[in-house]
UniProtKB/TrEMBL annotation:
It catalyses: D-alanyl-D-alanine + H2O = 2 D-alanine. This is D-alanyl-D-alanine dipeptidase. Binds 1 zinc ion per subunit. Zn(2+) binds at residues 116, 123, 184. Its cofactor is Zn(2+). Belongs to the peptidase M15D family. It comes from Atopobium minutum 10063974. NCBIfam families: dipept_VanX. One of its GO terms (molecular function) is metallopeptidase activity. Catalyzes hydrolysis of the D-alanyl-D-alanine dipeptide. CDD domains: D-Ala-D-Ala_dipeptidase_VanX. InterPro entries: A_A_dipeptidase, VanX_actinomycetes/firmicutes, Zn_M74/Hedgehog-like.
Length: 202
């Protein structure tokens, strides 16, 4: 692992995670190149900012569940190769039912260069500390559709409020939201703004 990076659970005691790209439960339908273990890596700067987010969330009765952090360039290349392949309909219904596979790039859901590869982005949600249940957000992680936009129409008032709550927690902790994905946040003060890393999550 590069200097300045760490497994986030080593600093964020009590954080939950499910590294989706290390599993079969992601839009490619199989574990993604570069993800060798089901853990989340980030920069130390991200870890400190997430610790602030943990404190804010806990005061409201919530914990953080992380889905992705640092992403090797190898994984980004794997996404791009996958997007260029013919449709096989294995994951379309669950992750991108209303657009074509190739549109995942043109519509901004899959990036050819990702802030995740700089170690400065995090994909996450909230869960209830008292029950462990995930907070309802109106769409699932990596659901690539307008329903996942911050300004989405057609989700309930409670789900919209939950998204605003997560956004307030993250923005007050030094992160910037991404308008197409309610779960994606980037650290504003990035330690490596021009470097795209490629070491494996291992």
């Amino acid at each position: 692992m590069e200097n300045g990076f760490l497994f986030l659970d080593e600093m964020l005691h009590g954080v939950r995670w499910d590294a989706k790209y290390a599993t079969w439960d992601n839009f490619t339908g199989k574990p993604v190149d570069g993800y060798e273990v089901n853990r989340i890596i980030g920069t130390k700067a991200v870890a400190f900012a997430l610790r602030e987010a943990q404190i804010h969330a806990a005061a409201l009765g919530y914990g953080l569940l992380l889905w992705d952090g640092y992403r090797p360039r190898t994984a980004v290349d794997c996404f791009l190769r996958w997007a260029a392949q013919p449709e096989d309909n294995l994951t379309k219904e669950k992750f991108y039912p209303n657009i074509e596979r190739a549109e995942l790039i043109t519509k901004g859901y899959v990036a050819s260069q990702s802030s995740h590869s700089r170690g400065s982005a995090i994909d996450l949600t909230l869960y209830h500390l008292d029950t462990g249940e995930l907070v309802s957000m109106g769409s699932n992680f990596d659901f690539m559709d307008e329903r996942s936009h911050h300004t989405a129409k057609g989700i309930g008032d409670a789900e919209a409020q939950n998204r605003r709550c997560l956004r307030k927690i993250m923005e007050s902790s030094g992160f910037q939201s991404y308008r197409f994905e309610w779960w994606h946040y980037k650290l504003i003060d990035e330690p490596y703004p021009d470097t795209y890393f490629n070491f494996a999550v291992s």
